[in-house]
Specification:
Layout (H helix, E strand, L loop, with lengths): L4 H15 L10 H13 L6 E6 L2 H9 L5 E3 L1 H7 L10 H25 L13 E4 L7 H13 L4 E5 L18 H22 L6 E6 L1 H5 L1 H14 L3 E4 L5 H10 L5 E3 L11 H7 L3 E4 L2 H18 L11 H8 L1 H10 L3
Parallel strand pairs: 1-2, 1-8, 2-3, 3-4, 4-5, 5-6, 7-8
């Protein structure tokens, strides 16, 4: 028996690598696809899962066409794109509409890469799994369950639920507060129950994975935040997210004490140290989210372009060519599809 153990370990490793590849997930529901990616990373058989965050159809297309394995729909981004700060001024229906746009963007990118990608890159179309920001669930525990179902129908692979008091706000700004410990756990439990109920209705692997977030480090201290993450795991969440750790030591201790997949929030100029993906994975993180990089980069580019326009100067070195812009938004694919159905 001892002689075949290395062989068993090798086979297990090969299987993990196989299930993390796009081809192995052909026809796989988004939550199951995400689960396999997390399993491969958490076991050390695949690199940390990088999540550039999107917030509309265009940013979802860009992330999909760039060839990442997963993404995250950021509430900050959705709020910002609607002209609001991330203080829960955007409603659940607006977030759900954004999730539908993101799903369409990811689907179009997947089809485009499969049908019209570079030679040697073609294959079955696999829509990138996306974790959607569920904020506080938009009400009580019953609202939380409705939010899970809504995102599931929109094709989201996972949903983040947090323990802030509504209206919530960005985890790296002042003025936030959290609900009591027991209420936070019940909120997560409701989300997990909804995940399981959705699977009971529509089949194994269809219920969005639950990412349980706590913001209590700033309000109640590091130990309280750890205890909440541990309780969230006991309640059944698939992933945890301790928001805004302020040192490498806190990040390391969180990874050591809390089991399961964990998310690091790499917000540039935020409260948490920005670390290389390899270092995050060696600590024990499974995912690294980049929540505002695309939004911030686009704001900077637009501000610079507006200044040039105001000064009467050309903007050519700040923008794509018209042909490139058309291609990014889908004109090339549209023309190719249109030709397929001409009489």
């Amino acid at each position: 028996m001892a002689a075949i153990r290395p062989l068993i370990a090798l086979v297990h490793a090969v299987l993990l690598l196989h299930i993390a590849t796009p081809a192995a997930s052909f026809g796989c529901p988004p939550p199951e696809r995400l689960r396999r990616l997390l399993q491969a990373t958490d076991s050390g058989q695949a690199p940390i899962l990088l999540l550039p965050c999107c917030y509309d159809g265009l940013t979802a297309r860009l992330v999909g066409l760039a060839g990442f394995n997963a993404t995250f729909m950021t509430g900050f981004g959705v709020s910002g794109a609607n002209g609001y700060p991330d203080t829960q001024l955007v409603s659940f229906n607006e977030m759900l509409a954004a999730a539908n746009s993101v799903a369409e963007g990811l689907s179009s990118a997947a089809l485009e890469r499969a049908k019209y990608g570079e030679p040697g890159q073609s294959g079955p179309p696999i829509a990138m799994p996306c974790i959607a920001d569920g904020d506080t669930g938009y009400g009580n525990a019953i609202n939380v369950k409705r939010t899970v179902f809504g995102y599931a129908r929109a094709g989201m692979a996972g949903m983040m639920i947090e323990d802030q008091v509504a209206p919530k706000r960005c985890g790296h700004v002042a003025g936030k507060s959290v609900v009591p410990f027991e209420e936070a756990v019940k909120r997560v439990q409701a989300a997990c129950d909804a995940r399981d109920e959705y699977e009971a209705l529509f089949g194994k692997g269809t219920g969005p994975l639950i990412l349980a977030r706590t913001d209590s480090l700033v309000t109640d201290g590091f130990e309280d935040a750890i205890q909440r993450c541990l309780a969230f795991r006991e309640a059944g969440c698939d992933m945890t997210f301790l928001e805004a750790p302020q040192s490498v030591e806190q990040m390391e201790e969180y990874c050591q004490r809390v089991s399961g997949p964990k998310l690091a929030n790499m917000l540039e100029y935020g409260s948490t140290p920005i670390l290389p993906p390899e270092q995050l994975q060696s600590m024990g993180y499974t995912m690294a989210a980049y929540p505002l990089t695309l939004l911030s980069a686009s704001i900077k580019a637009m501000q610079e372009s507006l200044e040039l326009i105001k000064e009467g100067k050309p903007t050519f070195d700040r923008i794509l060519s018209f042909a490139e812009t058309k291609d990014v938004v889908g004109f090339t694919k549209y023309a190719q599809e249109e030709d397929r159905y001409k009489c």
